[in-house]
Amino acid sequence: MEKRYWYVILAYVLMQLSSIIGVPILLFFNIVTGGSPQETITLASTYWIIFSFIVTLLIILYLLRSDITEKHRDFERSSVGGTIGWSIGGIFLAMFAQGIAANIEVRLFGIDPGSENTQEILQLVKMTPLLILVVSIIGPILEEIIFRKIIFGTLYKKFNFLISAILSSVLFAVVHMELEHILLYSAMGFTFAFLYVKTKRIIVPIFAHVAMNTFVVLVQTIFAEDIERLMREAEKLQASFVSFLPFIS
Predict the structure, then answer these.
(1) Same domain for 102 and 188?
(2) End-to-end distance of the chain based on CA atoms, in angstroms?
(3) If both were cysteines, with which of 76, 113, 178, 195 could 205 make a disulfide (CB 3.0 to 4.6 Å apart)?
(4) Are residues 114 and 147 in the same domain?
(5) Are residues 192 and 247 in the same domain?
């Protein structure tokens, strides 16, 4: 793996751990205040997430500036039309893969289709709408750079697609800290890896990932009441497939 990729991974890891120092700093200087001590801590954590993600994205884009400006031969990458097509189609492909995985989890393993991680994130979004920027855009961009471009890309130089996609996707799933849904997150990671290999453009899985997360946020916040009403009506019909909403990844 190239040195700059190690720096990118290091920046990502430090970002994940930075709240240990960042949140106490915000609290010490009373930069963030809430109606109660617990609300103040929650707000401080949320604002630090926003700040750290933005700074880390800028750092990573700087570290990868040579990759961004690198010229590729036309036959190595998907055409503009193909890129647009796979970007849009990738959204539905990822949702389909997630739906299959969710049904396997429920029907074979009896796992609750709900996601505590997703619900916790959505609660924070409702408290601090600016967090949508991280959940819907910055987060997916960073994850695709780390897990698809760097980790999967490095493995793919040594192994075949199947091995590389499985290893990187399982790691992608583990990082989300919901081991009961490891199959579901792995299915998403595998789909994004396929999109990357198919088009040779990291923007394609990024677009699909951003679109999925944005969809989840909109559905479960802005349109939550309407969706809940439709879900109650759907339960009466008892559909053959498990009713679920995509996870934030």
Answers:
(1) yes
(2) 25
(3) 195
(4) yes
(5) yes
Instruction: Name the residue among 88, 208, 86 with its Cα closest to residue 136.
Output: 208
48 & 146 share domain: no
3-state DSSP assignment of residue 111: coil
Of residues 157 and 232, which shows the higher confidence score? 157
This prediction has a pTM of: 0.85
Cα–Cα distances (Å) from 247 to 6, 7, 75, 143, in that order, read 28, 29, 35, 15
Longest dimension (CA), the chain: 59
DSSP string, 147-211: IIIIIIHHHHTTS-HHHHHHHHHHHHHHHTT-GGGHHHHHHHHHHHHHHHHHHS-THHHHHHHHH
Q: Which domain holds residue 203?
A: 78-249
Known catalytic residues are 143, 176
Residues 90 and 176 placed together within one structural domain of the fold: yes
What confidence tier does 220 reach under pLDDT thresholds 50, 70, 90?
Answer: confident
